[in-house]
Design brief:
Distance between the termini: 69 Å
Radius of gyration: 23 Å
Order of helices and strands: HHHHHHHHHHEEHEHEH
Number of strands: 4
Number of domains: 2
Shape: elongated
Helix content: 55-70%
Strand content: under 5%
Largest sheet: 4 strands, parallel
Number of helices: 13
Length: 309
């Protein structure tokens, strides 16, 4: 038995628990390959598959419950922290929140298969008042499906994994260096993707006080709400219009060009609003600004909202 296999066998259960816990807590260290590897070893009788599954589900539940409780305590403000921790550029856009708002707690059953969504879904479950039992039930089902699929793939490709381990054994400790280098390249790639995404959001913002003053003075900027339709049930900024994800209203010319366009959302860093603002600039609008803080800042300032229409 090689030193590499001895190390994997000795610390495999601990590695599965730690890897799943860290990934579900928000770190960019994928646990799926670890589960596939240990699943392959389980097929050879080196582990009990049921033990691996239990450990993985337990670790996921611990991390997810932490985000759920944070969401209950801090509300949507916890999303800002998640966006700072996550290296996934798509974790802050409206499609992600829209999926949870549309499907509710049931979305937790597939959240772990969507990059950047697992932690966000758990926090949203707490922030939106999802019951604890419902959260734990759907999250446990999702964790079981996710971890179970990886372990099953490991059993299907156990011979391939064994070949890989033999190659790593022949490479000696250099094999671990290659694995570490591969992980470093993966993290660096995700960081670069996030850096480019955040850089693309840099543009002039308008504060809620400035927008309120404009409306009070009789100015009529075009105010655009880019939240998912399900998120607008709590009301919109007075006079705001909504647009679909395909911008069909603008393409069809239903909305005339305006001198001033204000775009708002309910996501950290005004990510969705900034992306829509960039698209509108491409479509001929000359002055487009995201609303700093979005609808949450508008409400916190005490300004009224209109009902849906």
């Amino acid at each position: 038995m090689s030193w590499l296999l001895q190390m994997i066998e000795q610390y495999g259960i601990v590695a599965v628990f730690a890897n799943v816990l860290v990934e579900q807590a928000g770190a960019p260290i994928p646990a799926y390959p670890t589960l596939v590897l240990t699943g392959a070893l389980a097929a050879d009788g080196r582990y009990a598959t049921s033990t691996l599954l239990l450990v993985a589900v337990l670790a996921a539940l611990i991390a997810d419950t932490g985000w759920y409780l944070a969401g209950r305590r801090y509300g949507r403000g916890i999303l800002a922290l998640l966006c700072r921790l996550s290296l996934s550029a798509d974790s802050c856009v409206r499609q992600t929140e829209g999926a949870f708002v549309r499907w509710g707690a049931a979305s937790l059953m597939v959240a772990k298969f969507i990059p950047g969504f697992a932690s966000l879904a758990s926090a949203l479950a707490g922030a939106t008042g999802t019951g604890t039992l419902a959260f734990l039930l759907f999250d446990a089902i999702g964790a079981t499906i996710w971890a179970g699929s990886a372990l099953y793939l490991g059993t299907l490709f156990s011979s391939t994994v064994d070949d890989l381990l033999r190659v790593l054994e022949q490479l000696g400790r250099g094999g671990l260096v290659l694995l570490a280098l591969g992980l470093a390249v993966f993290v660096a790639g995700k960081w670069w993707q996030r850096y480019r995404f955040m850089r693309s959001l840099r543009m002039a913002r308008i504060s809620v006080d400035e927008l309120y003053a404009m409306l009070q003075q009789g100015e009529k900027p075009l105010v655009v709400d880019v939240r998912a339709p399900q998120s607008q049930v709590e009301g919109r900024i007075p006079g705001a219009i909504t647009v679909g994800p395909d911008f069909s209203e603008f393409v069809a010319g239903d909305i005339p060009l305006a001198d001033e366009v204000i775009v708002y959302c309910a996501c950290p860093n005004e990510a969705s609003a900034a992306l829509v603002a960039r698209e509108l600039l491409k479509r001929g609008y000359t002055r487009v600004r995201p609303l700093q803080g979005g609808i949450d800042a508008w409400r916190e300032a005490g300004y009224a909202t209109d009902g849906t229409h």
